[in-house]
Amino acid sequence: MARLFGGLLIAISTVLLLLAAHSTYEHFSYLKARNQSSESIRQVPADLVMEIGLAVILFMFGVTLYTPPLKEITWASEMRKRTIDEMNSRPSFAGFNHRGRSIHASS
């Protein structure tokens, strides 16, 4: 259910962002048609800024709800999935030629 709601929030925020982009383009086209100064062209109306902010916030909530839960990546959780036969025990590192025979041979 949360995944469906997250997808819906993503779709709504995408539509809001596209609408804000279109409104911004129309606003700048209107200012250019009226030969406004370059300083007033740089300013975006406050309602468009709020609409873009709302779209970004909705998109973040939507993505948070849409993604699956995170998986545990600790060493213990990885070892639960494997058996001892899958792991390489590296028998080449085992040293059987040690001094134990010479120390305990006299006893």
From TrEMBL:
Belongs to the membrane magnesium transporter (TC 1.A.67) family. Keywords: Endoplasmic reticulum, Membrane, Signal, Transmembrane, Transmembrane helix. It is a multi-pass membrane protein. It comes from the Eukaryota. It is found in: Endoplasmic reticulum membrane. GO terms for cellular component: early endosome; EMC complex; Golgi apparatus; plasma membrane. It comes from Tulasnella calospora MUT 4182. This is Membrane magnesium transporter. Residues 1-20 form the signal peptide. Its main location: endoplasmic reticulum. The chain crosses the membrane at residues 47-67. GO terms for molecular function: inorganic cation transmembrane transporter activity. The lineage of its organism: Eukaryota, Fungi, Dikarya, Basidiomycota, Agaricomycotina. Component of the ER membrane protein complex (EMC).
